[in-house]
Amino acid sequence: MGTPVVTPVTTDVERSAIRKISIRLVPFVALMFFVNFLDRTAVSFAEPNGMGEDLGLSAAQFGLASGVFFIGYILLEVPSNMALHRFGARRWLARIMVTWGIVSLLFTWVNSTEQLYALRFLLGVAEAGFFPGAILFLSQWVPARHRTRILALFYLAQPLTTVIGAPLAGLLINQHGSFLGLDGWRFMFLGVSVPAILLGVIAWFYLIDRPADAKWLTGEEKNWLTGALAREESEKTAGHGGHEGLKAAFASGRVWVLALIYFGFIYGLYALAFFLPTIISGFEDQFGTHFSVMDKGLITAIPYLPAAIVLFFWSRHATRHGVRAWHVAGPAVVGGVSIPLALSMGSPTATVAVITVTACSIFAALPAFWSLPSRFLTGGAAAAGIALINTAGNVAGFAASYITGWLRDLSGSYYAPLFLVGGFMLLSAVLMVLLAARRGPTAPAPEQELITAGH
């Protein structure tokens, strides 16, 4: 039996403040995340729809091009998040968006494998720090008891990026030669880049760094928010579970275990994100089917709509009952078992159905997972710790992209790569259970408990 979660009474002021944040702030940051994920995965739609043939890419070369993005991202991940902590989210997130939008725009005119590698690397440099910065920013606006719900609303943008983005990419690719004679895949890069630049400019004026500066909050709401957040920071720094410095975050065993857990989930996420359109294109040879570009976009979107629904309800349960180990470990087990089975199915429908189960598993766990680091990290350590955990995810993104393509070329199929995905997700489940079982003297108080093993 785990320690029961203490549920404080929710006041009208608290309810009103959280509702306003959910309406005024979260959707805009989620929209930024939507464009962010669309820009970084646009290459997966371009490759099977002309780019691979035009640039002469093998599966391994495409995997390297997909994965080299994460090298640039990894190099600047922690420094970027520390800069956000120093200069404020409004300026830093706006700067990141405009910079990556400009780099993404240059993909419209890429003409060689070497140029593709270089631009993917630069895109990673430009985007570095956006995701952990957004997580940190939202975590600084709401107390811990509301964090899973807020992060779930934010995280809905990721599966919905594919639900909306895959058909949108298909629509843009179908505009072959309609704008300046550009190939369809080149026009697609143009179409997904401009929104990033525009949103970056808007973010400079729209975002607010602190609740105390929000004109759309009443005085009572500001006082409650700043007081609740200040009390949490004080409790974290006063107890053994709090970490005040950058060095302390890097020395935290829990941070590194969470980084390994996140690695497994993100390895699976990007293996699907970058190679699912290619796997669907392979249905023509495997099952003798034929799909148009738009059909492929719609099929690619199928797993992600149920994933968004499962994410919402799973996170709501975690918010109401407290984050438990099985909120993260359970989906990891389901995903780890389901993904290797996908290519053993006898039809495109069955294959996509199994992949849908995997997508639901990955996305269900992520908001609950991201509510954990900020429960025992504070200040600069929170910025560094969240960035360090996300860095592990970016290592997974590079590894998943390159290794999946390399194993595909080596073995002639996607069976071996997907078994590896399953193995990493099962490892994440084991580590989550072990972390829950290790309840030493640094564990937070019951009402701020990191995780518990059971009910």
TrEMBL record:
Question: Which compartments does it reside in?
Answer: Cell membrane
Tell me the domain of life: Bacteria
In the bilayer, the protein is annotated as: Multi-pass membrane protein
Mind telling me which residue stretches traverse the membrane in this protein? 21-38, 58-76, 92-110, 116-138, 150-173, 185-207, 255-277, 297-314, 326-343, 349-370, 382-403, 415-437
Work out whether the entry's keyword set contains Glycoprotein.
Answer: no
Q: Where is the Major facilitator superfamily (MFS) profile domain?
A: 25-440
| Identification of the protein by name | Putative tartrate transporter
